[in-house]
From TrEMBL:
<protein>
    <recommendedName>
        <fullName>VWA domain-containing protein</fullName>
    </recommendedName>
</protein>
<feature type="region of interest" description="Disordered">
    <location>
        <begin position="22"/>
        <end position="51"/>
    </location>
</feature>
<dbReference type="InterPro" id="IPR036465">
    <property type="entry name" value="vWFA_dom_sf"/>
</dbReference>
Amino acid sequence: MPQPDPGSAAIIAEDVEGHARRLAPLLKPPERPGRTRPHRSKGRYDARRDARDAERVFVRKTVASRPMPIRVRLLIDISISMGGEPIRCARAAAGMVVRAAALSGSSAEVHLFNTRHQAVITGPMPYLTAQALIAGIEVGGSTCLSPALAVLSDSPAHPLEKELIVITPFRA
């Protein structure tokens, strides 16, 4: 597990704040308001209203439709091939996604992989602590994605789960 580095965390936080604020609305789609005045011919038939010769003989409940929250799971390659600029970009991307999730009320997880899987952020935690953990990510080892995918695929299905993002230096 990476060691927290508060100095690097502050630098990452400054660099990604604007991008995270633009990403946050996408992680929490707006709630659609319910129809406040449904048409008189829509809904569930109500015989009592029909017996009273009411204009609307159908009953329709109007509730807001809430989108499902999003849980973002990041897999970051920390093999030796990620040294230098690629790991700095991966740290910045992870910091941006964690900040955007914090702003939007969504949840984010950060997982690392080289020859084995490491979970860095698996649940809610203070934003600055999460940024310090992300800033402490170091490279080493070779690339093997299967242990990390096995751990994530074996985790129980969650109705809030929406995305899986893999950050890796593979080149076509």
